[in-house]
Amino acid sequence: MMALFGLLISNNVASILSAVTTKEIYGSAPYLTFDGVRSHADSVSPLLSIMLPDNKVINALEDESSMESPIMLDKKSVTFADIKTLVPFKNYPNILTDEVIDNNGYWQDDDGDKLNHTSTSKLTINWQNLEGQDITSYVKNNSNSVLNGCDAPYKLTLELDDIEIVAQYGIPSKSDKFTGGKHTYYIYPKIDKPKFCYAKPNLEFNFHPGKVPYDGAISSINAGNDEWNKHRGFYAYNSRILTQIFQLQALIICFFI
Questions:
Q1: What are the pLDDT digits (tens) for 214-231?
Q2: In 3D, which of 36, 71, 39 has the Cα closest to residue 57?
Q3: Share of the chain above pLDDT 90, in %
């Protein structure tokens, strides 16, 4: 009789445990947060922010800089490293968005679940100088170089893919989907005194047959890319080239006199 009673109890317990363990447990979905107090964010714009040398943070939604009205830096001798974004220089030109939000604590899951690093979303950075030349690789390898007024305003563009946070466990395990974005900042360094940037020879005389326009590609055939800008002239830092140019121009003037 006792054996039969014990068997009945065991069967009932197994039935109860089976009912409990097969039922799905619902919790809360993961979410973006940028204020450290677990407030749910409704925009990814903080991920497109930059920090200036004075620790001032500029948000993409607030920035109104342009080529004609750039952000004017207050500090002299600012380097690229002084202008901070969420893309580390070692990761240029992009970093996985999951790494950004995880490393900076920009996401939460109230159930304590961990982030599932499966997203392919990326945060991408691009630097361009005044001429529109892509200098992202240069900035990556020369982050301590000082911004040059001759190349300003610089264009700093941050672009973010769409985001969806996925936790490892729990139901639901996915956040709302966030639409990515793109924003360009125009930055101009502080100039404390006038600077000689380019030397442009007199373009009045053209000795090429067929009246080929003087654009540097032909008229300065021996000048490398680091010596000549076809829109502005020879770079002022190359004293050897400048000396040769002005000597040649003086010779041309004397020839026509």
A1: 554 444 444 445 666 666
A2: 71
A3: 43
HEC string of 149-169 equals HHHCCEEEEEEECCECCEECC
pLDDT (tens digit, 9 = 90+) per residue, 176-211?
788 999 999 999 999 887 777 766 665 555 555 555
- Indicate the burial class of 80 (C-beta count within 10 angstroms; 0-12, 13-18, 19 or more): buried
In angstroms, rounded to a whole number, what is the distance separating the alpha carbons of residues 48 and 123? 8
Q: What is the token pair recorded at 185?
A: 């900042």
Residues 140, 141, 143, 144, Cα dihedral to 10°: 180
CA distances from 157 to 20, 82, 85, 126, 152 (A): 53, 16, 10, 5, 14
Residue identified by tokens 């999951």 is: 98
**Does position 248 have pLDDT exceeding 80, yes or no?**
no
Confirm if 138 and 88 have CB atoms less than 8 A apart.
no
> What are the domain boundaries of the chain?
31-188, 198-256
| Ramachandran area for residue 22 (φ above 0: left; ψ -120 to 50: alpha; else beta) | alpha
Q: How far is CA 145 from the centre of its chain?
A: 17
Q: DSSP state, 45?
A: G
Rounded to whole angstroms, how far apart are CA atoms 176 and 144? 39
Torsion sign across C-alpha atoms 80, 84, 88, 93: negative
Upstream peptide bond of 153 is cis (omega within 30 degrees of 0)? yes
Beta-carbon-side half-sphere exposure of residue 112 (alpha carbons within 13 Å): 0
Name the 3-class secondary structure at 98.
helix
